[in-house]
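Just scan my protein:

. . .
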Amino acid sequence: MTAKTRSHWKEYGTALCATLITATAGTCYGWPSPTLPYLQSKESYIPTSQDEGSWIVSIMILCSALTPIPSAYFADRFGRKTTLLLGAIPFILGWVLVIVAKSVAVLYVARMFSGLGYGIVYTVAPMYTGEIATNEVRGALSTLITLMNKVGILAQYCIGPFVSMRTLAAINLILPISFVITFIFLPESPYYYLKFERSERAERSLRSLRTDDIRLELKNIEINVQEDMKNKGSWGDLIFEATNRKAMWISIGVFTIQQLCGSAAVVAYAQIIFKSTESKIDPYQESIILGCVQVATCTLSVILVDRVGRKPLLLLSALGVGLMNAIVVYIICYAIGLSTVPYVIIGEMFPTNVKLYASCVAHIYTGISMFAVQKLFQVVKDSWGIYTAFWGFAVFSLLGLAYMLIALPETKGKSFANIQAGLKRDVARDNASKLMTVEY
């Protein structure tokens, strides 16, 4: 074990326990792939049409757009840790309802609960992992959010084809319960404590996350938080503060590319997509291969994100997704960047006083976009064929490549203060260019 690994093991351990809840979200996300073929078969004890199946897939993501605002309030008022613990409750209720379901309507309600939890997790988890990490490993810890999500998806692909729907739901209950049991003993974000001037608690929190001396880091965090909190953040600051507005447009642009490349449809409809290719390999086996490739590539992304940088991974990912329509190659390209790095971006681009609001807006937008992709995929597939959908995904991916090449700054290895300073310089340069244009 290297010195660098030893110096960060507490951060990795804490982030790993925290991201058990995103693995739970992954189980909900991947669950339709092995379950839909059964529900739509003659053997199903809950007969389900194709349209009902598309709603079972997509209604979870639609409901995820309902909880970012309340979860942002809770995280700001009661803490990131407490809010993440509360986020486990809807997942637990959702899986219990799947176990007892005897109609499509109950499955809808179950998926709605899962969606509420999904929205909480993806609003607060990027903030928590970003705030407990040092600059050197912040990218890796933030990409763990997506890696663990992919582990949850892989579990569905591997277990789902071999057990009943109720047994799968019962197995999935283990994750949110395990998350609560482990995460309840872990520290709150020191940024949250310092925001409310609880210096002693912040020191204890940071000490439990580090293996070396924390005095200088604690002082720097305190200075950054005080600077951020001189002006209390508000929703309006995302629009009227030029630096925040620029960061918001960059983040929304990256999340748009992430969704319009089609990943949400590929993951949820994996077995159905593979069935349509008439391959000699069984669809469930191809799904397992897909899931393994996702996890392996996301692991590679965790390793590379703080070495190569955010922007190169995103550019490579968008280019590959746009050019490669073979599903396994597509998912490799997606997982290396677009799957993981956007959650790093949203955790890094905003000051403490508006970070929650920005995360909230991004995830409401993402939820609506993901719902549209999942719901419309079935419509486009039935009306114009599956290849039409994938050509559309390719076009949006290549457009996204051009956008990120122009608009996205690199944040690798930079402190929050340095990132904000860079955005301010970009805004000043943009304003100067506009002024010169007007004068000319």
